[in-house]
Design goal:
Layout: H1 8-18, H2 35-44, E1 46-49, E2 53-59, E3 66-71, H3 78-95, E4 103-109, H4 118-136
Parallel strand pairs: 3-4
Antiparallel strand pairs: 1-2, 2-4
Length: about 140
């Protein structure tokens, strides 16, 4: 395997040594599935924008972080939309322990997202993580 500065194994090696693999799964109860929940987060949540994403987050009463993803047909055909959703889920799955507890997070993909790979998605969304810590006054776990 060729090692690059953005190698996935380089990013997650330390994480794997300290956590159980089951903690990296994305269970159904960690997803926002109902339209009413999406709308509530969008109405009452705080918004953060990047070049390719709109991220809206709000505290919840569920006791865990939950993720909702919206990718419209403007992004591309079904293959491209599904790939975009997989990349966002992978970011959340690998970084959910860095997000302060008990938030609903809705990520809306913009048009240009189809050209991104995982590492560009990671670089763009990690700015959101830092913003969340600033917004809630919590310490960044760097």
């Amino acid at each position: 395997m060729v090692s690059t500065p953005y190698s996935l194994s380089a990013i997650s090696t330390d994480l794997l040594s300290t956590c159980k693999m089951a903690e990296f799964s994305l269970r159904k109860d960690e997803r926002i599935l109902k339209r009413s929940h999406f709308l509530e987060v969008m109405r009452k949540g705080k918004e953060f924008r990047t070049n390719n994403f709109i991220v809206i987050f709000k505290r919840n009463e569920a006791g865990k972080n939950r993720l909702g993803i919206t990718v419209s047909k403007k992004v591309g055909n079904a293959v491209r939309r599904n790939r975009t959703k997989r990349l966002i889920r992978e970011f959340f799955r690998l970084n959910k322990f860095r997000i302060p507890c008990c938030h609903d997070i809705v990520i809306i993909a913009k048009k240009g997202v189809v050209e991104l790979n995982y590492f560009l998605v990671y670089e763009e969304l990690k700015v959101f993580l830092n913003e969340m810590y600033v917004c809630w006054g919590e310490i960044d776990p760097k």
